[in-house]
Amino acid sequence: MSATKSNTTVNNILLQILLFGGVWLLIPFIFNDLDINSYNFRRGSKILVGVTLLIIVNTKWLFPKLYIQNQIGLYIVLGILLLMVVYLSLETFLDPYLETLRDKPPRRPRRGSGHNNNFNFARLFNSLMPYLLAFVGSTLFEISRFANQKTKEAMLLRSEKLETEMKFLKSQINPHFLFNSLNNIYSLSYLKPEKTPDNLLKLSEMLRYMLYECNEDKVPLSKEIDYLKNYIALKLLKDSRGMKVSVNLEPQSPNLMIAPMLLIPFVENAFKHGNIEDLEKGWISIDLKTVDQKLIFKVSNSFAPTPSTKDEVGGIGLPNVKRQLALLYPNNYQLDIDSKTNEYHVSLEIKLI
After folding, report:
1. Cβ atoms of residues 75 and 66 within 8 Å
2. Where are the chain's structural domains?
3. CA pair distance 327, 157, nearest whole angstrom
């Protein structure tokens, strides 16, 4: 993936250099002026060097570090500074070097008797124009490419969202989980009938959330947390002996918006692999909090080589979740997974903007 991206960047830079710098090398060919002593050849070579430097610096550093990060003012200031540095460097170092390649001494330009200041300003503007056009053209080129990339990502996201929703309907509504939950609630209706309505309501809320509310791009964090709580509560109906499950889902900012069904796969995996039926060694710890606009979600569990649950159909899976994170929260999340011999730790931080 990185090699492909690197090749794309190199091809993009070469294309821009060809567009904004190559034209100056065509001028000597057009005028049949290929002698190294000629003004057209020397000026075209100098401009090509300057344009190449401008495009490389702009494409690899200035544009992605400043413009894309909405630091437009700083981008303009540093762009102007880069333009002047490149121009002065070429005039100071490259121009004298090109003069040394001439077979004849350079002719002194004829000086006009009047309008000297206007002439100098016009000459400076004329000298800067190729570099200015190259920098502006490179910026417009990158803006167009960035917009096109975002459009493709949006289309891909919509496509994957539809695919994910279908997976929710086929696999997230896990028949095995529903069957066990209904079976546990049925048993509960004989042993503790007063608790049956509450657990039926939990199951109903989960189904409503999955079928209807998840159609939105983002939902309040509180709704996602309610789903997690209901899921955990129904899973714990399986055994009344007191499994070691520690849950802390009390964020300071429950009204923050988050992509739906983004957190449940980590909890599902914990119950699937945590072996909590082993009351001595099995355990699960789930913790969620918010700091300003950052969500901090941690799931840890004991790890059994053979999953304790026998579900043939699981959730959307961690690879799918990682892809969604990359598309929905680019550069605004950090996911760390630490798998040890007998433990499994997941730490997810998302800047919810």
Report:
1. yes
2. 2-103+121-153, 173-351
3. 7
Q: Decide: 28 and 34 in contact? Cβ < 8 Å.
A: yes
What is the predicted pLDDT for the residue at 321? 82
d(CA 255, CA 158): 24
Q: Averaged over 127-153, what is the pLDDT?
A: 86
pTM of the model: 0.55
Is the distance from CB of 271 to CB of 302 less than 8 angstroms?
A: no
Q: Which of 188-197, 222-231, 328-337 has the lowest mean pLDDT?
A: 188-197
- pLDDT value at 207 more than 60: yes
Q: How many whole angstroms from its chain centre is CA 217?
A: 17
User: How distant, in Å, are the alpha carbons of 56, 114, 158 from that of 90?
Assistant: 16, 28, 49
Distance CA 21, CA 335 (A): 43
CA distances from 245 to 187, 280, 300, 337 (A): 22, 12, 10, 20
**Secondary structure letter of residue 279 according to DSSP:** T
Q: Which of 57-66, 114-123, 156-165, 180-189 has the lowest mean pLDDT?
A: 114-123
Write out the CATH class of domain 173-351. Answer: alpha beta
User: Residue 339 CA to chain centroid, in angstroms?
Assistant: 25
Statement: residue 285 has pLDDT above 60: yes
Residue 266, token pair as written in the block: 């980590």
Structure-block tokens of residue 204: 């109903």
Q: Is 160 exposed, middle or buried (0-12, 13-18, 19+ CB in 10 A)?
A: middle
Listed residue (305, 317, 249, 314) closest to 278, CA to CA: 305
The answer on pLDDT for 97 being more than 70 is no
Burial 133-144 (b: 16+ CB within 10 A, else e): ebbebbbebbee
Average pLDDT, the chain: 78
**Cα 344 from Cα 234, distance rounded (Å):** 22
**Cα R_g (the chain), whole angstroms:** 32
Return the pLDDT at 110: 45
